């Protein structure tokens, strides 16, 4: 049986106790709960990749993540990326930022890229 206790003890610390056997679903829940706790503790996660590297913040890069995007009723865009270890992380992006991101990606690639299929043409 998996047991997890996460208590924020100050603005800069949390007490975490973890014990037991964890299924994949248990680990996903643990990652989610740890991320929520991390968001409450100072300092904030650096807002740029460069600052994160300078601060020595852990960063997981994935060569071929699954990526999905959908326009929401209010016109914003939901972009979600799947990492094999962390799971799905989604962000809601305003239309202006979505267009700028799309244009940046088009301008930064030498060939057309379909974000919604893998290398074999299979849809995500």
Walk me through this protein's architecture.
By secondary structure, the chain is α+β, with helices and mostly antiparallel strands. The chain is about 30% helix and about 30% strand. The chain is built from three helices and five strands, in the order ββααβββα. The chain has a three-stranded antiparallel beta sheet with strand order 3-4-5. Strands 1-2 form a two-stranded antiparallel sheet. The longest helix is centred in the N-terminal third of the chain and has 16 residues. About 0% of the residues are buried.
Secondary-structure content class: alpha+beta
Summarize the main sheet.
3 strands, antiparallel
How would the global form be characterised? Answer: globular
Give the SSE order as H and E letters: EEHHEEEH
Task: Give the termini separation.
Answer: 34 Å
Helicity, as a percent range: 25-40%
Q: Mean pLDDT, as a whole number?
A: 87
Identify low-pLDDT runs: none
With helices defined by DSSP (H or I, 4 residues minimum), what is the helix count?
3
Number of strands: 5
The radius of gyration computed from the alpha-carbon positions, rounded to a whole number of angstroms, is: 18 Å
Instruction: Give the strand line-up of the largest sheet.
Output: 3-4-5
Approximately what portion of the residues adopt beta-strand conformation?
25-35%
